[in-house]
Amino acid sequence: MSFGRNPHVAKAQAAELKAQTAGDAGSYERAWRDAGRLWERAAERESDAKRRALYTANAERARTTADEPQVDPANASPSADVDPEMN
């Protein structure tokens, strides 16, 4: 471990990546909740107020994302983003 670095930041980022690639709804929710917990731990260890606020906001975002249904990008319709009047 290097000095002066918050190890929970990298762990939280890894948990978010794991959540984004989760295969089912249960692991998706657990991974986002784990990311939220790790962001909270990162905020607790942070002495810089700006970073502490950022990490706390990341924790809230992760918990909010865990409550939302998982969206599979492979099943997302590309036509949903297209304006029908443009055709």
Could you describe the 3D structure shown?
- With 87 residues, this protein is mainly α.
- The protein has a domain at 14-67.
- Helix content is 62%, strand content 0%.
- It has three helices and no strands.
- It is elongated and about 35 Å long.
Order of helices and strands: HHH
Q: What percentage of residues falls in helices of 4 or more residues?
A: 55-70%
Secondary structure category: mainly alpha
Number of helices: 3
Mean pLDDT: 82
Report the count of strand segments.
0
Shape: elongated
Calculate the terminal CA-CA distance, rounded to whole Å. 56 Å
Catalogue the unreliable spans: 76-84
Q: How much β-strand is present in the residues?
A: under 5%
